Amino acid sequence: MQLNFKGANQYLPFILLVGLGIGTTNYFIHGDYNWLQWVIQASVTSLIIGYTLLWLASNKIILKHYTRQKWKLYSLLFLLFFLVGIIATEIEALIKTLIFQGAGYVPFSSIDNYIPNSVIAIFLGFSFFLNERLFSKKNNIAVNSKGELADLNNTAKEAIITKIPVKQGENIQLIGVQDIVYFEAYDNYAHLFLSSGKKMLCDYSLIFLENRLDKDFLRIHRKYIVNTRHIQQIVPHLNGRYVIRFNQPKLDTITSSKGYLKAIRKLIKIE
Question: Whole-prediction pTM value?
Answer without folding.
Answer: 0.53
